[in-house]
Amino acid sequence: MTTPPPGPPEDDPIFGDRGFGSPFSDPPPPPPPLDPNADLELSIRRASARPGTQPGEMLVELDTTRGAIEMYLQPREGKTGCVIFMGGAGGGVEGPADKVYVRLSQSLLDRGVTSLRVVYRKPGEFEECVLDALAACSFLKGLGAQSAVMVGHSFGGAVAIKAGELGGLVTSVVAMSSQRYGTQDVDKLNRPLLLIHGANDDVLDRAASDDIHSRAKEPKHLVILEGAGHGLNEAADDVFSILENFIATQVGDASST
Description:
This protein has 5 helices and 12 strands. The strands form 2 sheets. The protein has a 10-stranded mixed sheet with strand order 1-4-5-6-8-7-9-10-11-12, with helices on both faces. The chain starts with 11 loop residues before the first strand and ends in a 6-residue tail after the last helix. Strand 4 and strand 5 form a beta hairpin. The chain has helices spanning 96-107, 126-142, 155-166, 207-215, 236-251, and strands at 12-13, 17-18, 22-23, 44-51, 58-64, 67-74, 81-86, 113-119, 147-153, 170-176, 193-198, 220-225.
């Protein structure tokens, strides 16, 4: 993907410039419906962007048929691998483990990875949040992405797993401190799955990740962090290293340059 040229202070339209610079007359195709028998579909009408909160970051807004979705995009020019970060039931885009999503969005640039942190339209509503994750996949695919790791925490862990089952762009999934609800079809994921859980989690017991791991197919890996709670702050450095290496191996440059 390539970085868009600087624009005026007001929102700059993205669609119309595929891959941040190539001709793109139409928005990307809509994400697949969450359930063929349910009225759960979302289409992207338009995307616009303005400067974000971190250096080089863009705050993107997708105008969709189900409302606006905000996302923080940290593009890595000339690369096609991405990571999509999903928050917990309360929303939030900074991540657990001492704001690991924000920290990774910067460090992964050196590993050749574009980052996208998604703001839920309706935090806590599982199907709507999965649609947000699928919309993020469609958006990145329209910009030239070819592969993505979907990462989620707590409620967002289940969102990441379900989106991984449905989103063609997703090539691997990470679920941290995940809930069980929404993971009933994890055996259909058919992608590498990394599960991370704190041994001292008193919100969602580690048994949830044990159960998900037991039902998932290979390749899969479960990491239990001793002394860590639900937010994984006690093992923030370990979480950072595990995620950075996994993401870079899956969609980026396996070693720093």
